[in-house]
From TrEMBL:
It holds the Pfam family Chlorophyllase. This is Alpha/beta hydrolase family protein. SUPFAM superfamilies: alpha/beta-Hydrolases. Keywords: Signal. InterPro entries: AB_hydrolase_fold, Chlorophyllase-like. Residues 1-20 form the signal peptide.
Length: 288
């Protein structure tokens, strides 16, 4: 009986700690289609970001520590609300996604301003500190060896601007490519800083980023690179669709392969198996 009482007490203490950290939150698409209901959270110690995460971190981490993606927004802006359906969906499959910009409950509900690329690496610093803090809900639940850096449009340039950070294990460029531009502290000279596999996920000829992404793909020859193209996707792809549409599913194939070691997901990229991805094309190079 004493053991049961102590277990109940520990549960309530853990719950209080977790709830105390989350100052505000919302649920996107009923928490996603994955095994773990996701929330979009404003953390007390990280006010200028949204953490898309499984609501119950400990349960989600039972099958393995949770990989991380840090994310920079289109326009290099301070809100991820245009991307929240993809980011929440990823989180529901057992990931922690930390997006630049404070929590915004509804569209148009905040002031839009620009951000700095270093906010991506600051987010990694934060989650690393949380993982070792015994008072944190993230304590010992985070896989710090498996971190992705992703961004959409101008946010992709921010990804390249901090690409040299050794903690990054993979990169995701959504509707983005630097080509011959200079943006957000990045240019074509930033490409050699990429030191891990990178995927470009673009939206076909009507996506203004596709031509620059093509140039990047041609120029990158020192790390593995994949190029996933939704031919009728446009510059926002499927970010606005329920559960993030096929952009979410393509992202999860990449993340499950690169960060969770699920080799079966590699067929989409290495074998061009697009049977579940109508309207997409794929090419890849430099993979062993």
């Amino acid at each position: 009986m004493k053991k049961i009482f102590l277990t109940i007490c520990l549960f309530f203490v853990t719950t209080m700690i977790s709830v105390a950290q989350v100052e505000d939150s919302k649920i996107v698409d009923n928490g996603g289609s994955g095994d773990y209901k996701a929330i979009a959270a404003k953390e007390a110690t990280l006010p200028n970001y949204v953490v898309y995460r499984p609501e119950n971190l400990e349960v989600a981490a039972e099958e393995g520590l949770l990989p991380v993606m840090v994310f920079a927004n289109g326009g290099c802006s301070n809100t991820s609300i245009s991307h929240e359906r993809v980011l929440s969906e990823i989180a529901s499959h057992g990931y922690i996604v930390i997006a630049i910009g404070a929590l915004q409950k509804t569209p148009g509900g905040g002031e839009n301003s620009s951000t700095e690329a270093t906010m991506l690496t600051d987010a990694i610093d934060w989650v690393a500190d949380q993982n070792k803090d015994k008072e944190s809900a993230y304590y010992n639940n985070v896989d710090l060896d498996d971190i992705a850096s992703g961004g959409q449009s101008c946010g992709g340039a921010q990804v390249l601007a901090v690409a040299s950070d050794p903690r990054i294990e993979t990169y995701m460029m959504f509707n983005s490519g630097i080509g011959d531009m200079s943006m957000a502290g990045a240019d074509r000279e930033s490409l050699p800083d990429v030191h891990a596999p990178i995927v470009y996920i673009v939206g076909g000829p009507s996506d203004v980023a596709t031509s620059n992404a093509e140039l990047d793909y041609e120029r990158i020859d020192h790390v593995p690179v994949a190029f996933a193209n939704l031919m009728e996707g446009g510059h926002m792809g499927t970010f606005g669709e329920e559960y993030g549409g096929s952009f979410s599913r393509m992202s999860l194939k990449w993340l499950d392969w690169q960060l969770k070691g699920q080799d079966g997901s590699s067929d989409v990229f290495l074998e061009g198996d697009l049977s579940d991805f109508s309207g997409w094309t794929m090419k890849a190079k430099s993979f062993q």
